[in-house]
Amino acid sequence: MRWLVWVALVAGCTSATRGLGDDPLDQAALADVPELQHLGDAGATDVLDLFEKKLQFTSAPDPTALFQATADANDAVDIGTGAVALKLLSYNTGLLDRGYLGGHVAVPHIDPRRAALPDALIAGDYDVLFLEEVWELSDVAALKQALEPAGYTLYAGSDKVHEQTGVVIAVRTSLIDGGLTVTEAGQYDAQRKLEHWPGPNLKRGWIHVAFDLAGTSRTVDLFCTHLTPFYDKWRTRNLQARQLGIEIDTVASDHVVFMSGDLNAGPYYAADTWTDGDGKDHTGWWENAAMEPLLMYYGDLQDAHAALAPTLDKVRGDAAPLGGNLDVPYGDASYCESSPHDTFTSTDCNALSFSEYAGTEFPARMDHLLYRGQGAVKVVDASLAFVDPMDFSDGTYEFSDHYGTSVDVEVAP
Question: Among residues 261, 305, 99, 252, which one has the least CA distance to residue 167?
């Protein structure tokens, strides 16, 4: 293996210059797009309709058929001999502690969690880490100090952009043959501007690296992102998913692609109305189910979780409560005790999430790992990570207000 050489490339800016209707992928009927067919109930007929300011769903968009097709395709992959196994983690670390004009936002217990996180990541023995909410450069430095001696190469973008996006990719160095190619970080055209100013200097975007995978003749591209939060910002997320998908679509078709991050929306919601802990109804959740299918369509991606569990989003979603509680998660202690933690990465069953967002939103699979393999990738395991509370110096709680998504794949040589 040659010494690692960092090669900085200027992004093509293709996605930023293609307005709605300007990309060939915009020009399609939903009925002709497998990823989007289940969204036709919104009164939409064409892809561009999914970016309108109001969609009119009359029933819950159900991705089960789409996900079953993903699972069937994964089952059919014959990976052959000599495959390289990769263990991937997507994780919102919850390292948010930042002041802004007139306020302050922080995930609880940040100092004990911050101190323990690098060792926990190393102990997980992952080959690729996609990390979100590593907002501060001091946290990037701490991760580098721990991960690089443990055999990882880390990229977080330029200092200025990183402090606005907070995303990091780390790769086991022994897997990189010849060096890591770094594409200039991108930021979305569609933003919730309040997050940047007077908010805490957040501006959503993505990072992209590529490398030749040792032991194969394949190039692997990695994308990490964190989309805009809150259910009523679904149109902003749809636009962000389109832009990132178009960017991913520019990657050479013979490359393997893994895209991961906190996308701040799930693929399925059983009801369109959520009753919060104060008894107030919030309607418009079904629009959020369009974001991941749009990203899959524009980026030619598949959902790794769905490749092994195509029905779980609907099964767990249908069994989830339809309202919140300010005192007990979902108003029923037995729900969190009896429900398997195998789908929802954002839930009031997580003590940190409950302390921040009690009763305000549906449990959801917000954290995703998508892939494009052209028959060269087989998903062999998918589960949630960092689910169990841990003992810290000041109490027992989870490592973050999100659970992680762990996926094991095999890449054909």
Answer: 261
